[in-house]
Amino acid sequence: MDRSAAARPRIVDIDDWQAVAEHRQPSGLPGFDDGLALSELLGALDRERREAFVLTQLLGMPYADAAAAVGCPIGTVRSRVARARADLTGWLRSAETCTGTPGHQP
Q: How much of the chain, in percent, has pLDDT values that exceed 70?
């Protein structure tokens, strides 16, 4: 095989390449739409609640380490995470019933 032939893309004899590609994707992982929804929900959280939630719940940082990172007592981090969970849960319930959208709460 010459160099020019090796550099050309190979043509695969598959009629429905998109279905094959989708089938080979790992299952159980959030999709693009799920990622956008999560990003929107997190963005609607109060900054301090979002910070505490992301550090402890998404990144897995221990509460004491998160408290040291943001410069507040561990109880404050726990409170912010609990309130963030309550906000997110409420918004998800509202979305399921199509009665509300995420919004900023003081």
A: 58
Which tokens is 2 given?
A: 């010459």
Q: What fold characterizes domain 49-106?
A: Arc Repressor Mutant, subunit A (1.10.10)
Rounded to whole angstroms, how far apart are CA atoms 77 and 55?
Answer: 10
Instruction: State the pLDDT at residue 106.
Output: 43
Coarse DSSP helix, strand, coil percentages of the chain, rounded to the nearest 5 percent: 65, 0, 35
- Number of H helices and E strands in the chain, helices first, is 6, 0
Give the start-to-end residue ranges of the domains of the chain.
Answer: 49-106
**Distance, CA of 71 to chain centre:** 25
Average pLDDT, the chain: 77
- pLDDT above 90: percentage of residues in the chain: 42
C-alpha span between 73 and 61 (Å, rounded): 15
